Amino acid sequence: MTDSKRRKGLMAASALVGGVLVLSACSGSDGKASGAEGGGKKSSQAQVDEAAAQKTSEALIKIAPKDGSDNASINNAAAVTVRKGTLTNVTMTTVDGTAVQGQISADKKSWKPAGQLQRATVYKIAAEANDSSGRTAHENASFTTVSQANSFIGNFTPEDGSTVGVGMPVSVNFDKAITNKAAVQKGITVTSSSGQQVVGHWFGNQRLDLRPKDYWTGGSTVTLKLDLDGVQGANGVYGVQQKTVTFKVGRNQVSTVDAQTKTMTVTRDGKVVKTIPISAGSPENKTYQGQMVISEKFKETRMDGSTVGFKGNDGKGEYDIKDVPHAMRLSTSGTFIHGNYWGAKSIFGSANTSHGCVGLSDTKGANDPKTPGSWFYNNSIVGDVVIVKNTGDKTIQPDNGLNGWNMDWAQWTAGSAV
């Protein structure tokens, strides 16, 4: 080998060894990066990265529901919490910028909106928090609440804070058909201060009534709890209600109409307080029999026969009275107990002449407190029981009004889904 070739070989070997040494030096034997000059100084990029890490807040903000969620609850979904820090500011708005009121908790660890959200609405939440060193963290999210098409509500009676008669059931009417009845019924509880057992009964897929075996105990307090938020009532349809309702049960008043004797006996807490002459349905238009509950009261109302099937040859109603006094509804189909000023006074107590209602003597204008119609109206409340007998007609259907008392307890409990 010539000297020149030998020198070239040594240079190549030296370069190869040098390359290996350089590659080894990038990681170092102790796992730490060393500077190009071997002096142990950090690169400028490492210094930037470390400085940025020192400026990052340790506060960890969590927004619920998750960003991009849909079908979110309008009651409990929205919330902001923080770990390793305290919340300093939270804003919630609809997509069009309308602000939603809310409040940070006393310990500054959480935030919730002040009220119920709207259905089918896009909301945005922006949150800020500081860690113990005062460094600020930010978090943002948006979500959509459950749509009306994908949710259901139950319209209920009686109203919160009302006082009702002993026959008043709790009746919940749903705005969509319920197929998962057991789950929905489990989300509805009714309790009484009297300790009476309360059981629900389904009338079809959209109505659930709840009552005790016997009439409510007079003077008791009844509590209805709707815990339906997120409960699946049908495929893809969820509840949105979370509500507690209480109502009072008044004195025990039960009135018995006897179409044969043409009288009504009013008892209160087991004692007869009044006997009133009446006129029930005529032999051609008999009054339903059974236990009925007053569901509505009107000082005056219009009664048009065409709306309940009584039409003449001209297509108009057989009657159309625009100022019926002291009317109280007993059925959805149009059975009322009401004042009557157009009939002869002699019919009350002696003849059944109506189209199916129970009539009491009254005066036009509903302003005479001395009439039987006025007395009964002023001494009755929604939920009072009116029992009608000896009419010769069939017993009213339990779902025609609030009249589930016409089912015995075994029939009633058989209609429960739980």
From TrEMBL:
A GO MF term: acyltransferase activity
Which keywords does this chain's UniProt record carry? Acyltransferase, Cell membrane, Cell shape, Cell wall biogenesis/degradation, Lipoprotein, Membrane, Palmitate, Peptidoglycan synthesis, Signal, Transferase
- For whether the record's keyword set contains Cytoplasm, the answer is no
- Could you name the Gene Ontology cellular component terms for this entry? extracellular region
Q: What is this protein called?
A: L,D-TPase catalytic domain-containing protein
- Signal peptide extent: 1-25
| Residue ranges of every copy of the L,D-TPase catalytic domain listed in the record | 253-389
Q: Which residue positions are annotated as catalytic?
A: 338 (proton donor/acceptor), 357 (nucleophile)
PROSITE patterns linked: LD_TPASE, PROKAR_LIPOPROTEIN
